[in-house]
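Researcher: Let's walk through a ligand-bound prediction step by step. First, I give you the protein sequence. Second, the SMILES string for zinc ion. Third, you return the three-dimensional complex as C-alpha coordinates. Ready?
Model: Ready.
Researcher: Here are steps one and two:
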Amino acid sequence: MTLHSPISLIRKLFSILYPPRCLCCGKLLPGESPLCPACSETWGGERKKAASPRADGVLYLAPYTKSRSVTRRLVLRAKNSNERRLYLFLAGELAKLLSQRSISADFVAGVPRSPSVVRNTGVDQSSLLARALAKTAGSRYINALKRRRKARVQKMLDAARRADNAALAYRLARKAGKHLAGRTVVLVDDVATTGSTFSACEKLLYHAGAARVFKVAVAATERTVYKN
Ligand SMILES: [Zn+2]
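Model: Step three, the predicted complex:
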Protein backbone atom coordinates (compact mmCIF):
# COMPACT_ATOMS: atom_id res chain seq x y z
CA MET A 1 0.00 0.00 0.00
CA THR A 2 1.30 3.46 -0.90
CA LEU A 3 1.13 6.17 1.72
CA HIS A 4 0.03 9.56 0.44
CA SER A 5 0.66 12.88 2.13
CA PRO A 6 -2.50 14.97 2.66
CA ILE A 7 -1.33 17.43 -0.02
CA SER A 8 -0.75 14.75 -2.67
CA LEU A 9 -4.16 13.26 -1.85
CA ILE A 10 -5.82 16.65 -2.27
CA ARG A 11 -4.00 17.11 -5.60
CA LYS A 12 -5.12 13.69 -6.75
CA LEU A 13 -8.73 14.37 -5.78
CA PHE A 14 -8.57 17.76 -7.51
CA SER A 15 -7.29 16.22 -10.74
CA ILE A 16 -10.13 13.65 -10.63
CA LEU A 17 -12.72 16.41 -10.11
CA TYR A 18 -11.07 18.82 -12.56
CA PRO A 19 -9.09 16.74 -15.06
CA PRO A 20 -6.52 18.79 -17.01
CA ARG A 21 -7.69 20.15 -20.35
CA CYS A 22 -5.74 21.29 -23.40
CA LEU A 23 -4.82 24.98 -22.91
CA CYS A 24 -5.78 25.70 -26.51
CA CYS A 25 -8.85 23.66 -27.50
CA GLY A 26 -10.09 22.56 -24.07
CA LYS A 27 -10.11 18.83 -24.83
CA LEU A 28 -9.65 16.52 -21.85
CA LEU A 29 -6.06 15.36 -21.51
CA PRO A 30 -4.95 11.89 -20.50
CA GLY A 31 -1.77 13.09 -18.79
CA GLU A 32 -0.17 16.25 -17.49
CA SER A 33 0.82 17.74 -20.86
CA PRO A 34 -0.40 21.32 -21.40
CA LEU A 35 -1.63 20.79 -24.99
CA CYS A 36 -3.45 17.89 -26.64
CA PRO A 37 -1.43 15.99 -29.30
CA ALA A 38 -3.15 17.81 -32.22
CA CYS A 39 -2.63 21.33 -30.76
CA SER A 40 0.89 20.44 -29.70
CA GLU A 41 1.77 19.43 -33.27
CA THR A 42 0.21 22.60 -34.72
CA TRP A 43 2.03 24.74 -32.14
CA GLY A 44 5.32 23.08 -33.13
CA GLY A 45 4.62 23.95 -36.79
CA GLU A 46 3.75 27.56 -35.94
CA ARG A 47 6.91 27.90 -33.86
CA LYS A 48 9.01 26.85 -36.85
CA LYS A 49 7.61 29.80 -38.83
CA ALA A 50 9.00 32.39 -36.39
CA ALA A 51 11.75 34.52 -37.91
CA SER A 52 13.10 35.27 -34.44
CA PRO A 53 14.73 37.65 -33.67
CA ARG A 54 12.77 40.16 -35.69
CA ALA A 55 14.66 43.01 -37.42
CA ASP A 56 14.16 45.17 -34.31
CA GLY A 57 15.67 42.49 -32.08
CA VAL A 58 12.41 41.13 -30.61
CA LEU A 59 12.76 37.46 -29.71
CA TYR A 60 9.48 35.57 -29.97
CA LEU A 61 8.01 32.10 -30.06
CA ALA A 62 5.61 32.17 -33.02
CA PRO A 63 4.10 34.56 -35.57
CA TYR A 64 0.92 36.37 -34.55
CA THR A 65 -1.49 35.96 -37.42
CA LYS A 66 -5.11 36.91 -37.92
CA SER A 67 -6.18 33.31 -38.49
CA ARG A 68 -7.30 31.00 -35.70
CA SER A 69 -3.83 29.71 -34.90
CA VAL A 70 -2.83 27.97 -31.66
CA THR A 71 -0.56 30.96 -31.00
CA ARG A 72 -3.43 33.41 -31.33
CA ARG A 73 -5.70 31.33 -29.14
CA LEU A 74 -3.08 31.02 -26.40
CA VAL A 75 -2.40 34.77 -26.47
CA LEU A 76 -6.11 35.67 -26.39
CA ARG A 77 -6.69 33.25 -23.57
CA ALA A 78 -3.84 34.81 -21.58
CA LYS A 79 -5.42 38.25 -22.01
CA ASN A 80 -8.51 37.10 -20.13
CA SER A 81 -7.31 34.41 -17.80
CA ASN A 82 -4.89 34.19 -14.92
CA GLU A 83 -4.73 30.41 -15.10
CA ARG A 84 -1.43 29.30 -13.61
CA ARG A 85 -0.91 26.36 -15.99
CA LEU A 86 -1.16 28.64 -19.01
CA TYR A 87 1.45 31.08 -17.71
CA LEU A 88 3.79 28.31 -16.59
CA PHE A 89 3.55 26.75 -20.06
CA LEU A 90 4.27 30.03 -21.88
CA ALA A 91 7.05 30.91 -19.41
CA GLY A 92 8.61 27.47 -19.94
CA GLU A 93 8.66 28.00 -23.69
CA LEU A 94 10.16 31.50 -23.29
CA ALA A 95 12.78 30.19 -20.84
CA LYS A 96 13.87 27.63 -23.47
CA LEU A 97 14.16 30.42 -26.03
CA LEU A 98 16.43 32.38 -23.68
CA SER A 99 18.58 29.40 -22.82
CA GLN A 100 19.03 28.48 -26.52
CA ARG A 101 20.55 31.94 -26.95
CA SER A 102 22.56 31.67 -23.71
CA ILE A 103 20.74 34.68 -22.27
CA SER A 104 20.80 34.75 -18.53
CA ALA A 105 18.92 37.66 -17.06
CA ASP A 106 19.37 39.25 -13.66
CA PHE A 107 15.84 40.60 -13.84
CA VAL A 108 12.63 40.02 -15.76
CA ALA A 109 10.28 42.99 -16.22
CA GLY A 110 6.87 43.15 -17.89
CA VAL A 111 5.42 45.84 -20.14
CA PRO A 112 2.65 47.27 -17.96
CA ARG A 113 -0.91 47.21 -19.28
CA SER A 114 -3.28 50.10 -19.03
CA PRO A 115 -4.89 50.13 -15.54
CA SER A 116 -8.34 50.47 -17.13
CA VAL A 117 -7.78 47.30 -19.21
CA VAL A 118 -6.56 45.46 -16.12
CA ARG A 119 -9.66 46.63 -14.24
CA ASN A 120 -11.94 45.33 -17.01
CA THR A 121 -10.32 41.94 -17.52
CA GLY A 122 -8.90 41.41 -14.03
CA VAL A 123 -5.68 40.22 -15.71
CA ASP A 124 -2.30 41.90 -16.11
CA GLN A 125 -0.85 39.30 -18.43
CA SER A 126 2.64 40.68 -19.03
CA SER A 127 3.26 40.98 -15.30
CA LEU A 128 1.97 37.41 -14.78
CA LEU A 129 4.16 36.26 -17.67
CA ALA A 130 7.19 38.15 -16.33
CA ARG A 131 6.73 36.67 -12.85
CA ALA A 132 6.34 33.14 -14.25
CA LEU A 133 9.37 33.58 -16.51
CA ALA A 134 11.52 34.92 -13.67
CA LYS A 135 10.61 31.86 -11.63
CA THR A 136 11.18 29.39 -14.47
CA ALA A 137 14.44 30.98 -15.67
CA GLY A 138 15.86 31.41 -12.15
CA SER A 139 16.02 35.22 -12.24
CA ARG A 140 14.19 37.92 -10.31
CA TYR A 141 11.00 39.71 -11.23
CA ILE A 142 11.18 43.49 -11.09
CA ASN A 143 8.27 45.90 -11.25
CA ALA A 144 10.45 48.43 -13.09
CA LEU A 145 7.97 50.16 -15.39
CA LYS A 146 4.76 52.04 -14.76
CA ARG A 147 2.02 53.16 -17.04
CA ARG A 148 1.07 56.81 -16.97
CA ARG A 149 -2.55 57.30 -16.07
CA LYS A 150 -3.69 59.30 -19.07
CA ALA A 151 -1.98 57.28 -21.82
CA ARG A 152 -4.18 56.10 -24.67
CA VAL A 153 -4.56 52.43 -25.55
CA GLN A 154 -2.00 51.68 -28.31
CA LYS A 155 -4.15 49.55 -30.59
CA MET A 156 -6.48 52.51 -31.30
CA LEU A 157 -3.62 54.45 -32.97
CA ASP A 158 -1.71 54.25 -36.27
CA ALA A 159 2.02 53.42 -36.40
CA ALA A 160 3.39 56.98 -36.23
CA ARG A 161 1.11 57.94 -33.35
CA ARG A 162 1.91 54.70 -31.55
CA ALA A 163 5.58 55.67 -31.29
CA ASP A 164 4.74 59.12 -29.83
CA ASN A 165 2.09 57.72 -27.55
CA ALA A 166 4.34 54.88 -26.31
CA ALA A 167 7.11 57.31 -25.42
CA LEU A 168 4.65 59.23 -23.23
CA ALA A 169 2.78 56.22 -21.88
CA TYR A 170 5.44 54.68 -19.64
CA ARG A 171 7.77 55.80 -16.92
CA LEU A 172 10.32 54.16 -14.64
CA ALA A 173 9.23 52.99 -11.22
CA ARG A 174 10.82 54.87 -8.37
CA LYS A 175 14.19 53.38 -7.36
CA ALA A 176 14.29 51.13 -10.48
CA GLY A 177 17.76 52.52 -11.22
CA LYS A 178 19.08 51.33 -7.88
CA HIS A 179 18.47 47.71 -8.89
CA LEU A 180 19.03 47.88 -12.64
CA ALA A 181 22.43 49.58 -12.90
CA GLY A 182 24.78 47.29 -14.82
CA ARG A 183 22.22 44.47 -14.96
CA THR A 184 20.82 42.33 -17.76
CA VAL A 185 17.05 42.68 -18.08
CA VAL A 186 14.57 40.59 -20.04
CA LEU A 187 11.55 42.70 -20.95
CA VAL A 188 8.43 40.62 -21.62
CA ASP A 189 5.18 41.28 -23.45
CA ASP A 190 2.55 38.95 -24.87
CA VAL A 191 2.43 40.30 -28.43
CA ALA A 192 4.81 42.61 -30.31
CA THR A 193 3.26 44.50 -33.25
CA THR A 194 4.98 47.72 -34.37
CA GLY A 195 7.52 47.38 -31.57
CA SER A 196 6.95 50.97 -30.42
CA THR A 197 5.88 49.92 -26.92
CA PHE A 198 8.87 47.63 -26.57
CA SER A 199 11.27 50.27 -27.79
CA ALA A 200 9.87 52.97 -25.45
CA CYS A 201 10.19 50.63 -22.45
CA GLU A 202 13.64 49.45 -23.56
CA LYS A 203 14.86 53.07 -23.67
CA LEU A 204 13.62 53.65 -20.12
CA LEU A 205 15.43 50.55 -18.84
CA TYR A 206 18.70 51.67 -20.49
CA HIS A 207 18.08 55.11 -19.03
CA ALA A 208 17.87 53.46 -15.61
CA GLY A 209 21.37 52.06 -16.20
CA ALA A 210 20.65 48.52 -17.44
CA ALA A 211 23.67 47.06 -19.23
CA ARG A 212 21.61 44.90 -21.62
CA VAL A 213 17.92 44.63 -22.41
CA PHE A 214 16.38 41.70 -24.31
CA LYS A 215 12.87 42.14 -25.70
CA VAL A 216 10.93 38.89 -25.55
CA ALA A 217 7.35 38.15 -26.63
CA VAL A 218 5.11 35.11 -26.94
CA ALA A 219 4.07 36.20 -30.42
CA ALA A 220 5.00 38.89 -32.93
CA THR A 221 3.57 40.19 -36.18
CA GLU A 222 5.73 40.92 -39.19
CA ARG A 223 6.68 44.53 -38.52
CA THR A 224 5.40 45.62 -41.91
CA VAL A 225 1.81 44.58 -41.10
CA TYR A 226 1.00 47.85 -39.39
CA LYS A 227 3.37 50.09 -41.37
CA ASN A 228 1.35 52.31 -43.69
ZN1 LIG B 1 -5.97 20.94 -28.06
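Researcher: And what stands out?
Model: Residues 84-100 form the longest helix (17 residues). Residues 51-226 form a domain with the Rossmann fold fold (CATH 3.40.50.2020).
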